Amino acid sequence: MEYLDTGAGPAPQVTTHDLERQLRVAGRRYAEARAAATRARDEWRALLIHPKATPEGVRALREQFEAVAARCNRLRNVIDELEDRLDL
Asked: Could you give the CA distance from residue 82 to residue 21 in angstroms, rounded to a whole number?
């Protein structure tokens, strides 16, 4: 979705419509990632108090939660950038 500068010429014109569409897509992906982060966090917390939890299992769920949370942060940054571009 994002333009990559290859040095092959001028950047293509991006319309307001294109930015709004990208913002809608990013918003949907962000909502999905937030839901996944909530699920991963809840699973991790539940495993923390489970009497038969192994350190490896806890670590794996924590890493899964951290990965999904990082995706949320990246998507939030994309949304902020698109919103800024639309304000211009």
From this structure: 10
**pTM for the model:** 0.77
Q: Which of 1, 47, 3 is nearest to 26 (CA)?
A: 1
Q: What is the C-alpha separation between 12 and 53, in angstroms, rounded?
A: 53
Query: pLDDT tens across 25-79, in order?
Result: 999 999 999 999 999 999 999 999 999 999 999 999 999 999 999 999 999 999 9
